[in-house]
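job 3f2a | input accepted
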Amino acid sequence: MRSAIVGLAGPVLAADEAKLLRELPPAGVILFRRNIIDPPQLAQLMADLRAVLPARAVLMVDQEGGRVARLRPPHWYDHPPAAAIGALFAHDPLAGRQAAFLTGALIGLDCRAAGFDLVAAPVLDLALPEGHEVIGDRAFASDPHAVALLGGAVAEGLLAAGLQPIIKHAPGHGRAPLDSHLALPRVSADAATLAADLDPFARLHHLPWMMTAHVCFDAWDAGRPATLSPLVIGGVIRGQIGFAGLLMTDDLAMQALSGGPAERATAAFAAGCDIALHCSGIADDTRAVLMASPQVGPRVAGLMGAAVNQAARNRRGTLSAAVLADARAELLA
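job 3f2a | predicted structure (333 res):
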């Protein structure tokens, strides 16, 4: 099993994709809106993926709520963006934390019913005026303590529903002046200022998965984005933040990075990332990333196994869809 999670081209697992996934089995597959039409179609796609992927592979989706949601009405529920939860928290802290937990749990139930294992949420980036709108209402607040509390509550809700959360985008995308989907942002703030950005990640460093940011930080490594920087990954994410879990890249197909798909993956692994995420679904690029990705080693396999087992135990727990349905109605009223 290769240390990569990859995307698909469309709503059906094509024969050439199935062949590639058998030949170079990845650690998982991520689905996007282009892959999802309705529940019956999604159920068939998930079954087809499970039939060709290794038993330990994971299925992942970006489902934050708000504008970043792959499961959408009319077949799935809308969920509020992080900023709406943050605004409620500013007015009523207890209600805000309850809303955060319920949002995580309700997203988790939707994703669990669809067959996913991993949800790329919550966002722990700060809402800052100098930051690009690509984060915008995806951020809970500008205050690191509030972000940690609300992000932690969303993660708890996801975990309670049996899903594994991926906190993102470490060490922080909130100050980035550009959209890293389109260009490489550079942050010139000094290390003392950036301590605030690290705080939510440090408070939640015990969670199983974390995603990197394709952002250059002059204070730590002016020459390389965090995803490709051993200085940022070793010194900041593993060091100052204290994260010892599974570190996943943001999408390596984003234009913040240069070089070919294999070159990007190789650089990410050399910097200290555990899992390469490549989402384009372009067959040749997917093959290149998988070929450049090492086999999952004992450490990563152990961490993946522990996270999956914990999620399975949570799925056998007492979180009730019926009870949460009432809570959903109250939350969205």
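job 3f2a | The radius of gyration is 19 Å.
job 3f2a | closed
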